[in-house]
Amino acid sequence: MAHESFEDEETADLLNQNFVSIKIDREERPDIDEIYMKSVVTMTGQGGWPLNVFLTPSLEPFYGGTYFPPSPRYGMPSFSNVVRSISQAWKSDRKKIVESAYQMKGSLRELYEFRKSPDSTIDRAPISECYEALAGSFDETYGGFGPAPKFPTPSNLYFLLRYYNDSKDSSKLALSMVRKTLDSMMRGGIYDQVGGGFHRYSTDRYWLVPHFEKMLYDNALLVSAYSEAFLITRNEDYARVIRDTIDWASREMRIEGGGFYSAIDADSADGEGSFYSWTLDELTSTLLSGGFRAEDVKIVLRFFSVTRDGNFEGGRTILTSKTANTATSEWGITPDALLELIDRAKKILLEARVKRPRPSVDDKILTSWNGLMISGLTKASGALGEGEYLNFAKSCANFVLENLVEKNGEGKTKLLRRFRLGESKGDGVLEDYAFFANGLIDLYEASFEAKYLESAISIAKSMIDYYYDESGGGFYQTRADSSDLMVRAKDAFDGALPSGNSIAAIVCLRLMEMTTSEDFGNRARDTFLAFWEALIRQPASFTEMIVGLQFLLGKPKEIVISGQLESDDTKALLGVIRDQFLPYSVLLLADEMVSKVSPLVKDRLPAGKNPAKVFVCSNFTCKLPSKSEIELKKALND
After folding, report:
1. In sequence order, which residues have a C-beta less than 8 Å from that of residue 531 and are 6 or more positions away?
2. 555-638: CATH class
3. Domain 2-111 superfamily per CATH
């Protein structure tokens, strides 16, 4: 619509003569997008982007839709005709429009009316209901959930990994669903087989033809998902995907100084998909000129399922991949030799691809999405033992702390929404506080630098002060003093991106375990209760919040390491912890700084050169310390 209508002079004149036109970047203002998307869904039964909404001067919506063509087609009116009709209606029947808009405002308030009920109690019912719902919508042939278009929805995978972890013998299907989905995505066109990283979503059931936009948050969340799955399965293909995705993000999405950009556009100068797709002749000539033998080129083309006709527009091919073992049984080449050959081919193809017209980069740096990336990097660092990923996470966190964090006059921590070209701007929303605080907790557990835990606690306390609903439970998306919104939204829907409420509840639960503060725990429990009816009614729409519920009901462990961080015995014990999937645990290093915020640490500071030991606690009651790797493994699995 930007090219077809907003840049058309006649349409622009029509808009400017009759309306105050405002264009919103939904990533800078997710709070505005949330409210008006909900209003259009209420009016029309469907939503999506581009989102076009017509408002009264008091900001109440009275008409809206998604895409309008430049001329009438497929039963849709042209955008210019819509504009003329609304302009005329406003002039001739304004009173009726204002009344309907006021009613819409009331309807929206009701949609956000989530309140804890005194009759509700927290139990495991949403967990089992969520599992059944996901199993019922699972695509057994191609992985993923529901029909096309298919989104990665990593929260579904986090939930299923925990469900499997809780009862391995009786929930093998849960792990099978995760593996099938992860395998299909990494073999499909939604994954950039040459450059690494995942595209936005698949337009089809097969994960073949993507919408080619690459979002930071999708990739951050998927790095976490593949890292967790790697700890359970030890699948080296997952490790390769993690490494290639982080390589892509650090190469193409990272600003000097540490922050990560938001997205890479779908379109390039040659059209959508042209940057990522190939003809048979392009691939063949590129590989031959890169030193490949003709017989090796044939193997590469077969591995990537390349044909003369292609699988995309204009006879082009979106590369997909086979498994090394499947291919080698057919082609007479060892798995290791095949992988080496493919790695060489990818480097040559990547070098050739960078010479094409490139899609543009959305170079704003968002606090919330960088929080997700910090979490992904730290999980990858722990799973794969890659110290460089931890350094990336530290520099990203330091960038946000230096450029997007302020202290207000009351001493509260205030987050800004975005940084771009040296400018920090916009009040943060709930997801900024929740995602960034969660990332800092992950970073503390990976690095044991107390400043990150202290910052997480400060941000979480401000999150509660600014956004928590003391009477109804749960968190609003915006602060009470937000003046440009007609309603204050409170929601917990977990889609491609987890909700601020879901991650806020998880942050509070983790900090309760670390600090022993019941104030954090009460906020989390009341958040679950505020959305309890929705969790029971549509559990698969709230999978990240149910991940938080799994944590609460999973008998979390508080793990305290007492030892010198650089000593060999401490490293050995820490290696045992890092090597396991422990979704219901928090990890603390006993030192003076952390003892100020965690009573669990106070009496467990290391003394001199005494051997390292680990205290495994539950409900703040600790077992005898483990001093050997064997003892620690037993304590962690009891």
Report:
1. 114, 474, 492, 501, 542, 545
2. alpha beta
3. Glutaredoxin (3.40.30.10)
